[in-house]
Model the fold of this input.
Amino acid sequence: MAGRERYSRQTDKEENAMYGWIDREASRQHREEIRNEVAANRLAKVARANRVRAGATPPGKKDQQAILISSLDPGDEARLLGMYSRLSLRSIYRRFHTPFPRVPEWLVVSFAKADQNHMVGVVAIAGEEIVGHAMYARSEDGDEAEFAIVVEDRWQSKGVGKLLLSELAREAMRQGVETFTGIVLTENRPAFGLIDAVFAGARRSLRDGSYDVCAPLQSLKSLTILKPLASIRP
Ligand SMILES: CC(C)(COP(=O)(O)OP(=O)(O)OC[C@H]1O[C@@H](n2cnc3c(N)ncnc32)[C@H](O)[C@@H]1OP(=O)(O)O)[C@@H](O)C(=O)NCCC(=O)NCCS
Done:
């Protein structure tokens, strides 16, 4: 009996030691996981902030290239044609909802002729190239405007869309527009992400296989880095 008690006491002691070690190891690993997660979140946040402040780095280049956001002017026609001619079929389809093999030239020329009153265009410029274009067309009564946006493929997911759409919305507000409307294909997750990143109060409703989107401009979120259009044109 005494032997068994001693044996069981030893076992308890060993077990306690073992479980204590497991508990310590588990909580060490848990703490480490939390630390890694916090560090990863911090890095992602810093990367996002830099991306927005300093523009984006094109693939394969180490040095940062600033993105300039500017109103579209008639002299931009050739550069705008260049940007639309470089789009992938997927981006073309998501933008126009039509499987154009190439965006028709007459359509781009009509964008370039935007009068900056009923039809307003804003472009993102990297170096000499236009790499993104956002536009709106005003409704008859002027309170609403339908918007559309595209960013060249190699510049996507780098913050350019947010800059463009925010600036377009600001310009629309300056001109008395109250609401942006748009049509977005149901599979177009980047577009919904963009709209939610720019507007706090965007709503959507399903119609004929696409979403009608409605974004009150008052719900525009603030981005800190935008400067007045005129002063940032190269
Ligand atoms: C939709 C589009 C304009 C977004 O522009 P972008 O420059 O890529 O977007 P941004 O980098 O500014 O990202 C804005 C938000 O979109 C979302 N997003 C961007 N890329 C994404 C991706 N690949 N997958 C899912 N969400 C994505 C994110 O929510 C992001 O916000 P976050 O950076 O705070 O996380 C661009 O993808 C595009 O030109 N697509 C083809 C044309 C099109 O779909 N136009 C919209 C219909 S008119």
About this structure: Strands lie at 67-71, 119-126, 129-138, 144-151, 179-185, 203-207, 210-216.
